[in-house]
Write a structure and sequence with these properties.
- By secondary structure, the protein is mainly α.
- It has one domain.
- The strands form 2 sheets. The chain has a two-stranded antiparallel sheet with strand order 1-2.
- Helix 1 runs parallel beside helix 5.
- The chain is globular.
Length: 141
């Protein structure tokens, strides 16, 4: 995949925000059924993917997991914003979705130190753009 050179002119702050936005969109579309509804990973509430958040199990300050698909899942806005992620429910939801090993994986990987530069953000942005395009076509969104 060729790298869009105009992204190199942008500051890292812009690239990080763009990657975050695309990660959120991708996660919510990925977790949506063909009816465009998602189940909150923490409480099970059903909402339209556009009305959901992309919640992180391990805080997104841990760059090694910020865009990890197992760490980021669709959540209702109430759990994500007002219940501090509803971590007890999120924990159970992760086990149900991915199995017990995912918790250990996330807890270990969060300690990895990762420094993101422009190139890494640009690659992440382009990967999310491609995945979103494919999912929207597949799910007819």
């Amino acid at each position: 995949m060729p790298v869009k050179t105009d992204y190199y002119k942008r500051p890292i702050k812009y690239l990080k925000a763009k990657a975050d936005k695309l990660c959120s969109e991708y996660t919510r579309i990925r977790d949506a059924g063909y009816n465009e509804l998602v189940n909150c990973i923490s409480c099970g509430k059903i909402v339209h993917w556009k009305d959901a958040d992309a919640g992180h199990y391990v805080n997104r300050k841990h760059m090694s997991l910020r865009y990890d698909e197992r760490n980021v899942n669709a959540q209702c806005r109430y759990c994500n914003r007002f219940c501090e992620g509803n971590m007890i429910g999120y924990h159970a939801g992760l086990i149900k979705k991915y199995g017990e090993d995912v918790i250990h994986y996330l807890e270990v990987k969060k300690h990895n130190t990762v420094k993101w530069g422009k190139f890494e953000y640009i690659i992440q942005i382009q990967e999310f753009e491609q995945k979103i395009k494919e999912l929207k076509k597949l799910k007819n969104i």
